[in-house]
Amino acid sequence: MYSQISSNKRNSVLLMMAAIAILISLGYVFDLASGRQNYGGVAIAVFFSFIMTAVSYFQGDKIALWSTGAKPVLHDENQYLYHLVENLCITSGSPMPKIYVINDPAINAFATGRKPELASVAITRGAMEKLNKEELEGVLAHELSHIKNYDIRFMTLVAVIVGAVSILSNIFLRSRWFSGGRDSDRDNGGGQLAAIFMIIGIIFAILSPLIAELIKLAVSRRREYLADASGALLTRYPEGLARALKKIASENLPLRSASSATAHLFIANPFNGKKLSAMFSTHPPVEDRIKKLREMA
User: Fold this and answer.
1) Which residues contact 116 (CB under 8 A, 6 or more apart)?
2) Are residues 200 and 156 in the same domain?
3) What are the strands, taking DSSP E only, across 61-134?
4) What is the DSSP letter of 141?
5) Nearest to 26 by CA among 152, 257, 206, 236
6) pLDDT value, residue 199
7) CA 229, CA 58: separation in Å to the nearest integer?
8) Catalytically annotated residues
9) Fewer CB within 10 Å, N- or C-terminus of the chain?
10) Is the pLDDT assigned to residue 289 strictly greater than 90?
11) Range of the domain at 179
């Protein structure tokens, strides 16, 4: 378990560094193509991306809970669920999150909140009805691990970088379009070099947002593996989460209130009816997750 957790943390950091490298390279190539080296484009892209992401960072938990129709649950309304979460929090030494229930027959759950003190856990009615105690504990431990590992904050940082890459690419392509590809350096002998970098820049501007998005999805998948391992370490019973994931896979019910904006939050792909390439999925294959969990037993 400890080996799996360390490996996932290391791979997540490496993937994030790769996204940062793309952003820096993108800005450098664009500056060479335009004949300027003041890195103003990079600064503008990061600024606008930060503003957009700040909204989701500070209000994203409320938006996610509202969009999925999650309703708060108090102790007296569902003591069984409340005590399961409370016992896991005591074991892990984490603050008690707010608990929400989504009125949907699908088996799923998600956690949100930028830090443990402001966290929330939402679970579907289907998960409470169809999972036994060990399976439900496994799911809850997975979500509490997302909170303890600061996954929401980490993914927000990755989103800032990916957003900056997309904005910078858009700025460059639009500036090339409206300027007709003209450069001020043509008059001082640098025209050919600038033209070469302009071509490189256009290719990079088209491909880099796709590459950055793939990196973001890869980071999301690594964090799911990390939460699986951390959750198994918390309960000391990996088979509970493995059996819960097997039930999710066999049931194959999509979550009605899910959207592409919140899909990465859930423990399993909420659009189970849609088969996506593993490269373009927010979640690793369920079969692979079950295999890794059972190897930890």
Assistant:
1) 94, 95, 97, 147, 148
2) yes
3) 71-72, 98-102, 109-112, 120-124
4) H
5) 206
6) 77
7) 28
8) 143
9) C
10) yes
11) 2-61+152-220
> Are residues 212 and 166 part of one domain?
yes
Q: How far is CA 211 from the centre of its chain?
A: 15
Q: Looking at the structure, do residues 255 and 289 belong to the same domain, yes or no? A: yes
Two structure tokens written together for 96: 């008690």
Domain end marker among 220, 253, 273? 220
**171: helix, strand or coil:** helix
CB 215 within 8 A of CB 163: no
Whether residue 164 is found in the same domain as residue 284? no
Residue 276, C-beta contacts closer than 8 angstroms, at least 6 positions apart = 269
Residue 155, phi then psi, degrees to nearest 5? -70, -30
pLDDT of 74 above 70: yes
State how many domains the chain has: 2
Instruction: Check whether residue 209 and residue 227 sit in a common domain.
Output: no
Is 260:272 a contact under the CB 8 Å cutoff? no
CA torsion through residues 55, 254, 83, 155, sign: negative
Residue 154: which pLDDT band, with cuts at 50, 70 and 90?
Answer: confident
SS3 call for 100: strand
Residues 214 and 239 in one domain: no
Q: How confident is the model at residue 35 (pLDDT cuts 50, 70, 90)?
A: low
Are residues 18 and 78 located together in one domain of the fold? no
> Which of 204, 220, 236 is the endpoint of a domain?
220
Asked if residue 198 has pLDDT above 60, the reply is yes
DSSP string, 224-236: HHHHHHHHHHHHT
Handedness of CA 106, 83, 232, 131 (dihedral sign): negative
pTM, to two decimals = 0.79
Contact predicate 265/110, CB 8 Å: yes
- Predicted confidence at residue 263, as pLDDT, reads 82
Across 79-88, 151-160, 248-257, 285-294, least confident range: 151-160
